[in-house]
Amino acid sequence: MKSERILVAGAGGFIGGHLVADLLSQGYKDIRAVDRKPMRDWYQKFPQVESSRLDLQEQDACEQAVKGAKVVYNLAADMGGMGFIELNKGLCMLSVLINTHLLLSAKKNNVRRFFFASSACVYNVDKQRDPNVTALKEADAYPAMPEDGYGWEKLFSERMCRHFREDFGIQTRVARYHNVYGPNGTYEGGREKAPAAICRKVIQAKLSQKHSIEIWGDGKQTRSFMYIDDCLKGTHMLMRSGVIEPLNIGSSELVSINQLVDIVEDIAGIKLKRKYNLSAPKGVNGRNSDNTLIKARLGWEPDTPLRDGMEKTYRWIYDQMTRKK
Ligand code: NAD
Questions:
Q1: Which of 58, 79, 156, 267 is deepest in the core (most CB within 10 A)?
Q2: How many CB atoms lie within 10 A of CB 6?
Q3: Does 300 reside within a domain?
Q4: φ and ψ of 142, to 5 deg
Q5: Number of domains in the chain
Q6: pLDDT tens per residue across span 83-112
Q7: Which of 79, 91, 226, when mutated, tests ligand 1's pocket best, judged by the most ligand atoms within 8 Å of its CB?
Q8: Looking at ligand 1, which atom is closest to the CA of residue 179?
């Protein structure tokens, strides 16, 4: 129903900005974009979209944002890479106010469908101690021992979505995103995640001719990274599906951080001396997405090769950095 009003909360951010662009390209006409950041800092802005600056931790702001909307995407959260979430647990937990007030407003306004962006950080940390990981399946979130701060907030908010669906009939859909990357996202300032941070460091080394790079941890920690196009495709498929339980949306292409650096060095055509900062935040030792459920329920899994997505991400960050210079 392309004429329905859609709210994208967190539209000034990385995934939210891409989601608005994608909804427009699909022909949705009535989109309301909301973010707490000043408009000049939004990654993507669209003149045909009603855009406003609101702090969605406040209930009144959520009422204003949700009014008239039939579909809500909650992508607003205080968030960042390991360097941010390990040092800002209280701030991360305050995002619970955003989802709580959005759900309450959705209930009041008879919202038809509500999306919550959860995270692989909800998974029990005990299952992520070995870099030779067993990929995480949805059931591994319980018994609960998620990432402190950020992960607990996500798990609680997932649970709240479930009970608002069961008790009040709001059709909630919950994605557990695994490390999303791509152009038009954070690559500096302390909130950036590994793919963007490594691109930035490699580009800095290339431009400054200082051929060394600092890597957080020993570089042996493993992860999977999902390109933004796959994230959007999975989000739409989930929203249109009958899948009511939280679902992994993540790539299952596992790499170590050292291998990720290899890829970026290769794209940049450079080889760097690696310095390992063993006291920097590095997160769990290993994490991958088990995609059995998404394949069974949606008949698809994220499939953009890491090298292809990193190529596009690197080019965008390179353009930003050289333009600034
Ligand atoms: P982002 O930081 O680029 O975007 C989040 C946006 O939310 C920001 O623009 C921020 O200003 C906004 N925001 C924060 N607090 C707000 C408030 N009180 N009111 C209004 N806006 C507020 O992050 P992202 O990568 O686009 O992530 C989007 C969502 O996906 C988040 O919920 C995040 O936790 C989740 N997620 C992202 C990843 C990833 O790898 N990027 C992985 C798992 C989950």
A1: 79
A2: 22
A3: no
A4: -125, 145
A5: 2
A6: 899 999 999 999 999 999 999 999 999 999
A7: 79
A8: 40
